Amino acid sequence: MRPTTLLRALNPVRPARTADAHCDLMCGVYYPEQARIEAESVLMSAEKYHDSDDEVFRQRAVTIKEERAELVKHHLSVLWTDYFKPPHLEEYPELHEMFWHAIKAAGDAKKTMDVAVAEDLIAKIDAISEIFYKTKGGKPEWLTA
């Protein structure tokens, strides 16, 4: 292959097209349920921990809870930074603080086996979920069926 052919392939004449989208991908890939499911696992792991006196089982519950709490932080961060845009923040100025508190609550859930901390995390996710679905015009049919 001639060098000029290779250079043309790497630097095409026509400019790249710019895509303009609300989200990184078309809407429909971001849902607060992802964080909610992981938070439910945090809660269940804490409950199972307290229901057992088997130390090996309890240590496994701690490990799973910490992994799931980290996933909650991830899913909330993605939702916060990739889905919500300036117009949402103008309409719901409390969103930044809600996300900050929810992500901090997920971090707190990593540090304790207190069921109340996991329940608080779920409540914070539910509050974010309410606003999320207001911005989407309601829950999709597959979530309400």
Describe the model.
- The protein contains seven helices and no strands.
- α2 packs antiparallel against α6, α3 packs antiparallel against α5 (95-110) and α5 (95-110) packs antiparallel against α6 (115-136).
- The mean pLDDT is 88.
- The chain has helices at 3-10, 33-51, 55-83, 86-91, 95-110, 115-136, 141-144.
- The protein is globular and about 65 Å long.
- It has a single domain, classed as Nickel-containing superoxide dismutase (Four Helix Bundle (Hemerythrin (Met), subunit A)), CATH 1.20.120.400.
- By secondary structure, the protein is mainly α.
Short description:
This protein is mainly α. The protein has one domain: Nickel-containing superoxide dismutase (Four Helix Bundle (Hemerythrin (Met), subunit A)), CATH 1.20.120. It is 72% helix and 0% strand.
Distance between the termini: 58 Å
* Number of discrete helical segments: 7
- Our count of domains comes out at 1
Total E-strand runs:
0
Structural class: mainly alpha
Helix content: over 70%
Give the helices and strands, then pairings:
Layout: H1 3-10, H2 33-51, H3 55-83, H4 86-91, H5 95-110, H6 115-136, H7 141-144
Helix pairs in contact: 2-3, 2-6, 3-5, 5-6
Keywords:
single chain, mainly alpha, Four Helix Bundle (Hemerythrin (Met), subunit A), 145 residues, 0% strand
